[in-house]
Amino acid sequence: MTDHHTHAGHSDAAPGEERDSFLSGSAGYIIGLLLALALTATSFWAAQSGALWRPGVPIGLCVLAVAQMGVHLVFFLHITTAPDSTNNVLALAFGIIIVVLVVVGSIWIMDNLNANMMPMEQMMRMQS
Questions:
Q1: Where are the alpha helices (DSSP H) in the chain?
Q2: Contact 30, 75 (CB under 8 A)
Q3: Integer Cα distance of 109 and 103 in angstroms
Q4: Tens of pLDDT along 41-83?
Q5: In a domain, 8, yes or no
Q6: Which position has the higher pLDDT, 85 or 44?
Q7: d(CA 46, CA 56)
Q8: Residue 35 and residue 28: Cα distance in Å, rounded?
């Protein structure tokens, strides 16, 4: 029979859960929240102020959006380069594929309907 002992100071953790890391626990969530709030405020400031060159505003907003996605992935979804987070990365990739399929399929269907539906004026003339 094997003897299962829990060592003092070591708690049981789920796969992919970081132990004794600076980003784990409440501190990581608070840092992530502060970074997300700062990036959101910066986005609003960049869009409303005249500090950025007008054609450069969409590029600046895209850069801030990608940075915010990175903050959310690291601090809230705990996507890291650790070998234990493989399942998290695969679940994220699957979710992204499903969302892309739904959005692209909806646009494709709406474009097809727009091209093949009879305009209202022509339908009214046919009824008269």
A1: 26-48, 57-71, 86-116, 120-127
A2: no
A3: 10
A4: 999 999 999 888 889 999 999 999 999 999 999 999 888 888 8
A5: no
A6: 44
A7: 10
A8: 11
- CA separation for the pair 77, 89 (Å, rounded): 10
Compute the half-sphere exposure of residue 57: CA atoms within 13 Å on the CB side of its CA. 13
How sure is the predictor about 12, in pLDDT bands with cuts at 50, 70 and 90? low
CB 46 within 8 A of CB 57: yes
Q: Which amino acid is at 85?
A: S
Determine, yes or no, domain membership for 90: yes
My answer on whether 73 and 20 are in the same domain is yes
Does residue 93 have a pLDDT over 80? yes
